[in-house]
Amino acid sequence: MNSNIFKIDNLQYCKWSKEIFKINKEAKLDAIHVTIAYHEDFDEVKKNIDEWENYFKEFKDLIFQGKTFKDIEKAHKEKKTAVFFGFQNCSPIEDDIGLVEEVYKMGIRFMQLTYNNQSLLATGCYEKNDSGVTRMGKEVIKEMNNLGIVVDMSHSAEKSTLDAIKISRKPIAITHANPSFWFDAKRNKSNDVLKALAESGGVIGLSLYPHHLKDKTNCTLESFCEMAAKTAELIGVKHIGIGSDLCIGHSNNVVDWMRNGTWTKTKDYGEGSANNANFPKQPEWFRDARGFKNLEMGLQKTGFNNAEVNDILGNNWYNFYRGINS
Question: What is the CATH topology of the domain spanning 8-324?
Answer without folding.
Answer: TIM Barrel (3.20.20)
